Amino acid sequence: MVEIKEIGEVSTEETSPGAHSHITGLGLDENLKAKPVGDGLVGQEEAREAAGIVVEMVKQGRRAGHGLLLVGPPGTGKTAIAYGIARELGEDVPFVSISGSEIYGTNLSKTEFLQQAIRRAIGVEFTETREVIEGKVESLEIERAKHPLSPYMEVPSGAIIELKTQDDHRRFKVPEEIAIQLVQAGVREGDVIQIDVESGHVTKLGRAKDALEEEEEELLGVHAVELPEGPVQKKKEIKRVVTLHDLDMANVRAGRLLGFREEEITDEIRQKVDERVQKMVDEGEASLVPGVLFIDEAHMLDIEAFAFLNRSLEEEIAPILVMATNRAMAKVRGTDEEAPHGIPGDLLDRMLIARTRPFERHEIREIIGIRARVQDIQLTDEAHEYLTDLGEEKSIRYATRLLEPARIVAEKEGSEVVEKKHVERVEEVFTDVSDSVEYMERMRRELPVMKYLTG
Fold it and tell me: What is the pTM of this model?
């Protein structure tokens, strides 16, 4: 059981949310038409509507071929759309994101790496009576400590959280594993959360009605929820989702404790897990929850990986496959043949394809505003416009990555608001990719020592 201690008064501290923690869906209306801004997503109406149709097919039990391929330039929100698909299907639906190039940087075989990714993207839902702490976050302090491998980096080491229900009001000290989840989920004052005391799993249920701002509901798709009743700490029937890979690993660990020499997940272990899960499903004790497997840089996969995916996704229970690429024609790795997007024709022919396009200026401005809001960074109008200029001229990634450095500079100058001068200062010291390439090309022409460096 996770150690959660009740304590006294606390203060608050800022947190840093995950990159896509603000996305709650695809921002579609009841007719699957995309709103200009909705559920934390901006623009890309065509691709979002395509994703919404895929979600509807899944909900109706119809398989959308082998999934969805998103094609478009870098920085056009392909990962965000894939994440939105998972959130449309449910808050606890598994979402697994990998890059095609990762299969070459692991000690696992390519097929084992993909097999684990697939099983991480399939959940098993149980309904259990669990001890939980639940309520509206009145205050939150994230405690930080030096990273064990880097003395210059701080990581969450624990948290002090104050929770309130209609009938109770308590404060707790929670350990590192819960603190990390609180940060990654972007939990802040006014959110209603639930923490499973035994496993430490954190669920963000929504935002308390008295804390919800109209802008959050319209633009970010944040859901208003009632303040929970009863005590903060109680026993409650909840739904819990674990993945097939979680169950595989639990059996591996159990084998080690019993003295078995299992150092990897074998086919026998997976078969036993599948048989046990199938029995629970048949007896009504659990249900399967197919999630989303997102593979970025799909053109980096090779013919062996594509063949494995093709075969694995024929299984009766398989995740929704979403792949992304920014290539046009490319060689299928491991062969001498070129193919559209570097993907073999037999797989490509079975996928639906949607396009993402470069963002327009008003969309760039909205995206920067959302990212600043999620990171709790206040921008002056002038700073916001200047960042929009940078996003339009260079890239959105470059502009949004300047937000945190600009905040640091502003704080050093004693300002709680990021002004244009703060953005200009960090722009001077942090270059974007196109400028860095141009700089190195110029150095290669001008410096004798670099003239022979062509790789």
Answer: 0.75
Query: 229-249: per-residue pLDDT in tens?
Result: 889 888 888 888 889 998 888
Given a contact cutoff of 8 angstroms between Cβ atoms, the answer to whether 332 and 339 are in contact is yes
Burial 233-260 (b: 16+ CB within 10 A, else e): bbeeebebbbbbbbbbbebbeeeeeeee
Q: Which of 269, 231, 267, 236 is closest to 250 using CA atoms?
A: 269
Strand partners, 158: 143, 175
CA–CA separation, 391 and 190 (whole Å)? 31
Average pLDDT, the chain: 84
**Main-chain phi, psi angles of 83, to 5 degrees:** -65, -40
C-alpha dihedral (322, 323, 324, 327), degrees to nearest 10: -150
Element (H, E) at 272: helix 267-282
Contact yes or no for 18/97 (Cβ under 8 A): no
Using alpha carbons, select from 86, 230, 101 the residue that is nearest to residue 166: 230
Query: Which of 56-70, 257-271, 302-316 shows the highest mean pLDDT?
Result: 302-316
Radius of gyration of the chain, Cα coordinates, nearest whole angstrom = 24
> How buried is 83 (Cβ within 10 angstroms: 0-12 exposed, 13-18 middle, 19+ buried)?
buried
SS3 167: coil
Q: Which two tokens stand for residue 321?
A: 């496959």
Q: Are 96 and 208 in contact (CB under 8 A)?
A: no
Map residue 35 onto helix, strand or coil. coil
Q: Average the pLDDT over 417-428 and give the result.
A: 95
Q: Which of 194-203, 392-401, 421-430 is predicted least confidently?
A: 194-203
Alpha helices (H) in 301-402, listed in sequence order: 303-312, 345-348, 361-374, 381-393, 396-401
Residue 143 pLDDT grade (very low, low, confident, very high; cuts 50, 70, 90): confident
Residues 6+ apart with CB under 8 A from 48: 26, 27, 28, 34, 41, 81, 84
Could you tell me where the beta strands, DSSP code E, fall in 66-149?
68-71, 95-99, 122-147
Distance CA 310, CA 292 (A): 16
pLDDT for 14 equals 36
Average pLDDT over residues 262-277: 80
- List pLDDT tens digits, range 320-375: 999 999 999 999 999 999 999 999 988 888 889 999 999 999 999 999 998 898 88
